[in-house]
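Encode chain A's predicted structure.
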Amino acid sequence: MKIDASKIKELREKTGLSVIECKNALEEANGDINKAIEILKKRGLEISEKKSSKEVKEGLIGSYVHTNGKVGVLIEVNCETDFVAKNSEFEELVKNLCLQIAAMKPTWIDVDSIPEEILKEKIEEIKSQYKDKPQNVLEKIIEGKLEDFYKEKVLLKQSFIKDEQITIEEYIKSKIAKFGENIKVKRFVRFEIGE
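Encoded structure for chain A:
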């Protein structure tokens, strides 16, 4: 199937991936852009899973101070090589993560970094709010409420402020697929006057 160049261009603008990758995904999806995006996401996920065990010793420290001088962010984002760390797209990723943290105030990087006692507290709080519900319903409510809690407080689970169709985790995985290297947010701190 011959793929129209305008579709390749559109997919490339949406994903930031190479012409060849976009063309191949569109061919596989018979020209359907939404299916092609799903194919590329799946490939990105497969690549990021293969790369997740790779050691990350390079990277950048990013910073952001809001124009009013009342909010600031410092972040360390790691990758495998200095070559990627010096890439302008990697720099843009770090900058976008700083903006995300400044705007959305996450507390933790990932779900695993939430202290056990805080999770237990949250679950107890939910149980006390819905104590009249049957056990099987309560379990579903707890699951849903915890998911909402993660989306609010966990950086990787938050919707990306520049594209709310994807999470920060998906955004980082798309960059892992593009660079062919593992990328990890090592740590961040957010400052706000009065907090």
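The mean pLDDT is 88.
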